[in-house]
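Z., the sequence and structure:
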Amino acid sequence: MQPAWVLSRQSYRDSSFLVQFITANEGRLSAIVKGAHRKQRGGTLASLMQPFSPVLVSLGGKSELRYLRGAESAGIAISLPGEKLFTGLYLNELLTLLLPKFDPSPTVFAAYGASLARIADEDDTELILRRFELLLFDELGYQIQWHCDHDQNPIDPAINYVFQSDKGFVRRSVDATDLSVLTGQELLVLYSWQQSERMIDPPLRHKLKLVMRQAIEYRLGGRALRVRDAVNQWRQVGNIEER
């Protein structure tokens, strides 16, 4: 059996689930969970197959769609109430859409569990998300260079830059909007933040979010994050910051 986290589940045929896992040994994968509502020692498989649940799983099959041989709890499921639920679902959907199947990444696996724990414990979750996004990009080979421009020249604090998804940071063009412009000094602050736990002020946080959103949308290739629609619906009954 190997450690895993449940990312999502959906009904499959009569009494089964199709579950997305991120596993320690095999990376992200999909598996059919048969007889999910049948009682067994420790409860039902349905009670284990919940998002944010750490589990130990045994998997069978050699095709892209595996099947669950057995599972047991590996700890208490992480509770993410209110707004934090959407934060966790955002991480799950990001992994489902960007992480290739059967590509093990112990770094991403560990960072995912650590990020969920911090989201549950801390009130300010925005920078937790940004760090996870950047780590995921690094592991996928999409590293964003904050300390040098597209031509590999060191960032100049006195020059303004804009982010281009397929290139990185380039010197500001005349038609660049104010929202997309970062000063060289801001880029160096973000580079320092990435290397340490230092805080960054709200305006720079907002610029960081815009850069990451642009980078993620480029890598998604037109696929939409459904959790954003869920957040927009939730906004109709509450005031929640968009991820």
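Residues 83 and 240 are 7 Å apart (CA to CA). The longest helix spans residues 202-220.

Let me know what you think.
H.
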